[in-house]
Amino acid sequence: MVSGLGNFGHWIDRLSSLYEQKTGIRLYPGTLNVKLPSEYFLPANVIRVEGDEYGGSVSVSIVPCRIFGRRAFLLRTDPNEHGTGHHSRDIIEIATDVQLRDHYQLNDGDWVEIELP
């Protein structure tokens, strides 16, 4: 795990109804940033939040996953997927209904297991 910028938390909070509509759960406004040993590329079939759905310019792909047996979602902006965003492709951002760092007492450098499709 690595520290993040806090940007996704702002947008999850601001667009909470839209994210809940797309995922079926109310996401905690923040993500857990996980550094992988290699790049992760999104699968072909993802859930999308398009920029024009909320009057913005950045679209987000959402991939269902699990962390600690909990239903969660990998969130990735289009710029990050294209390699032009704030994070390289070896960083994934995980969101769920709780603040993962506090709930599971996680710190930078801890290892976590994420089940991805």
Query: From the coordinates shown, what is the CATH architecture?
Result: Beta Barrel
> H/E series, N to C?
HHEEHEEHEHE
Uncertain runs are none
Q: Specify the number of helices.
A: 5
Helix content: 10-25%
Gyration radius, in Å:
13 Å
CATH fold category name: Elongation Factor Tu (Ef-tu), domain 3
Main pleated-sheet profile: 6 strands, antiparallel
| Domain count | 1
Question: Into which percentage range does the β-strand content fall?
Answer: 25-35%
β-strand number: 6
Overall form: globular
So, the CATH homologous superfamily? Riboflavin kinase-like
CATH class, named Mainly Beta
On the 0-100 scale, what is the average pLDDT?
92
Topology:
Layout: H1 7-14, H2 16-23, E1 32-35, E2 47-49, H3 51-54, E3 60-67, E4 70-77, H4 78-81, E5 91-95, H5 100-103, E6 114-115
Antiparallel strand pairs: 1-5, 2-3, 3-4, 3-6, 4-5
Plain-language structure description:
- This protein is an alpha+beta fold and 117 residues long.
- The protein has a single domain, classed as Elongation Factor Tu (Ef-tu), domain 3, CATH 2.40.30.
- It has five helices and six strands, in the order H-H-E-E-H-E-E-H-E-H-E.
- The chain has helices at residues 7-14, 16-23, 51-54, 78-81, 100-103; strands spanning 32-35, 47-49, 60-67, 70-77, 91-95, 114-115.
- Strands 1, 2, 3, 4, 5 and 6 form a six-stranded antiparallel β-sheet that branches.
- The chain is globular, with a radius of gyration of 13 Å.
- The relative contact order is 0.25.
- The mean pLDDT is 92.
